[in-house]
Write a structure and sequence with these properties.
The protein is 44% helix and 10% strand. By secondary structure, the chain is mostly helical. The protein folds into three domains: 66 residues; 77 residues, DNA polymerase, domain 1, CATH 1.10.150; 196 residues, hpI Integrase, Chain A. It is elongated.
């Protein structure tokens, strides 16, 4: 059918729908159009409709094919190795639009429909970021302003609170060697929970050489962390160290289930927080990573090692530099969280050894 304009029942913005017939090699082809006119003025919308028809016919005459749909662009993005984790909702709400028709208005509208009650940070991370990644991967780079992110508040455990967490977990309902070791590992190495649970007990860790390899981290860049003495001692109590399979297991010796977007898989953590009268919504397992970074910098003042060990490619690490006081670093040292290099070794030596 020819192109028509109809106002959206809710917003009043005119939508352009229909098909334009073009001829290629003597054969008729229909080009589907579904886009917003971005205006509530009927005459202006009709002018945009006419311009779209003209553009399509000019593209056909010049031999350039119309742009692909967002759905197809997302498929190609995945084939190139792009992350598919949050693509389902963008494809559901933008999939039929051509990628050269997607701009600020389309993304804003679709993001609100996809996440009507979500926090601004969630829409930024789970909608705007994947949409723009798909577009840029397919040669489109529209100027899109993302929603303002809310101010980030960083919480961290004090060293004595971390020790209390380890001790509380050790006295838990189902005593086992893995849970206390995992908590110690989180505070002592600052890795993400998903990174810790992916460590293989045979191929990814060596207590003799004091390292653990994180092969599939969030940013996709494999890295190695240097195990501090307290973590080495905790891991030595794990019976499956040196055996293939996940290093950290549940209290019953089974692997943790890896489910997409399942939230915190460490159920014991919340129970321990309650026993310590700490808010489990603020002091999550990821807060152990914040704590490690805060203590680490307070103790070492070494941002090179902080970025390398923490696996940061962005400036996120800078938040932790401002938090720790010298006294906090000293308290961490006294309570067994010791991150300083041996005397005479600096960051250059550290990185050379890594290479």
């Amino acid at each position: 059918m020819p192109l028509t304009i109809e106002p959206d029942p809710k917003s009043g913005i005119y939508q352009i729908r229909g098909t334009v017939t073009v001829w290629r090699s003597g054969e008729p082809h229909s080009v589907e159009v579904r886009r917003s006119a971005r205006t509530r003025d009927k005459n202006e919308a009709d002018g945009i409709r006419i311009g779209i028809e003209r553009k399509i016919r000019e593209q056909n005459g010049s031999g350039r094919e119309p742009a692909i749909s967002f759905s197809e662009a997302a498929r190609l993005y995945e084939l190139k190795g792009g992350e598919a984790r949050f693509l389902a909702k963008p494809v559901a709400h933008l999939g039929r639009l051509r990628i050269d028709d997607i701009g600020q208005a389309e993304i804003d509208d679709a993001a609100l429909r996809a996440y009507p009650t979500a926090a601004t940070a969630t829409r930024r991370r789970q909608f705007y970021a994947p949409v723009l990644a798909v577009l840029r991967s397919n040669g489109q780079n529209p100027f899109v302003k993302r929603p303002e992110d809310s101010a980030k508040r960083t919480y961290f455990f004090l060293p004595k609170q971390a020790n209390a967490m380890v001790e509380t977990v050790m006295r838990g309902r189902w005593p086992n060697p893995w849970t206390p070791a995992l908590v110690t590992f989180q505070f002592g190495q600052g890795v993400r929970v998903s990174e810790a649970l992916a460590i293989d007990g045979r191929n990814d860790v060596s207590l003799d050489h004091r390292y653990a390899i994180l092969r599939d981290p969030k940013n996709g860049l494999q890295r190695t962390v240097t195990l501090i003495p307290r973590v080495v001692a905790a891991l030595s109590a794990i019976p499956n160290i040196g055996s293939p399979g996940p290093l950290f297991l549940r209290y019953d010796g089974r692997p943790y289930a890896q489910r997409e977007n399942s939230g915190n898989p460490l159920r014991f953590w919340g129970a321990a927080c309650k026993r310590l009268e700490m808010d489990e919504r603020l002091f999550t397992p990821h807060t152990a990573r914040h704590s490690w970074a805060t203590w680490f910098h307070a103790q070492t003042h070494d941002v090179v090692r902080l970025k390398d060990e923490g696996g940061w490619q962005s400036n996120e690490w800078q938040r932790y530099v401002k938090l720790g006081t010298p006294e906090l670093g000293q308290d961490a040292w006294k309570l067994g969280w010791r991150f300083k290099n041996e005397p005479g070794r600096d960051s250059a030596d550290f990185l050379r050894e890594r290479g």
